Amino acid sequence: MLRWVQNFRWRSLRSGLKSKLAKSPSEGDRRIEDNHLPNTLSGYCPCHVRLAKEADSPAIVQFVQAILLHHEPLVRSLHVCRSSASESGLADYIRVLLPDSFTLLAVNPVQPERIVGVAIGRRSCHWDGKRLIERADRTRCDQLRKLLYIWSIVEAEPNLHQHFCTRCLFEIAFLATAIDAQRRGIGLHLTQRSVALARDLGFHFVRMNCSCEYSSRVATKAGLECHWTVPYHHLVDSTEQPVALPDPPHTHIKVHAMALFPDAVH
């Protein structure tokens, strides 16, 4: 297993980082209320966005799990949805993530109980990649274990904490839009709102890991620059075979990031 992880890291390091070194003070952690979240940042979006509440957690887990299992290219390529153990393990991972997250919900304005989009934000620390490896090592399902290893590489290899000289970034960890509500700007709206939320919370940098081309395009439109990328065919196992090959146009994993207060960076 160690050789498998090392293969991942060796391949992914070939891409490298693509931006200038920056520095930042440490981030604050002040809370904000719904009235600090105007409904529209730019243009029209057919949804209402609000901060998630504790009571929303079961619906969020179910929503994000369904989108990831059946529509996310990397997850589908790994056939995670074919195993009930994978499904329950993915749900557990999302469930553990939520209590310490900053989650935004997009809901149908006519049916406010219906979720049409979710953006789960969280603190990104330099040890997160190691924790994902530890979680993967405890996972019995082979498909889910591979997914967690890939996520661990994406968390660690860009080395954004050292790159930005900060202990903590805001990460848009999961972005999901209902299938029948796509191509309406909801994903972009949630990303923009997440960036605004990160700024209001006092973070100085935000990151978004994009395992599909569509989320990468959304990140770019929201102003996040691609700092690291690796082709899927570089992620190989001990037999030099690619671990996952999503269908085109999803050929690369990309990590986007941006400084929220660029005038303060020096």
Describe this structure in words.
By secondary structure, the chain is of the alpha+beta class. It has one domain: Gcn5-related N-acetyltransferase (GNAT) (Aminopeptidase). The protein has helices at 2-12, 57-71, 73-77, 84-97, 128-137, 142-156, 160-164, 186-200, 213-221, and strands at 48-51, 102-107, 115-125, 168-177, 205-210, 225-231, 252-259. It has a 7-stranded mixed beta sheet. Helix 8 (186-200) links the parallel strand 4 (168-177) and strand 5 (205-210). Helix 2 (57-71) crosses helix 4 (84-97) and helix 5 packs antiparallel against helix 6 (142-156). Mean pLDDT is 85; it is low at 1-43. This is N-acetyltransferase domain-containing protein. InterPro entries: Acyl_CoA_acyltransferase.
Compact overview of the structure:
This is N-acetyltransferase domain-containing protein. A 7-stranded mixed β-sheet has the order 1-2-3-4-5-7-6.
CATH class: Alpha Beta
The helix/strand order is HEHHHEEHHHEHEHEE
Rg from alpha-carbon coordinates: 18 Å
CATH superfamily: Gcn5-related N-acetyltransferase (GNAT)
**Low-confidence sequence ranges:** 1-43
Strand content: 15-25%
Overall body shape: globular
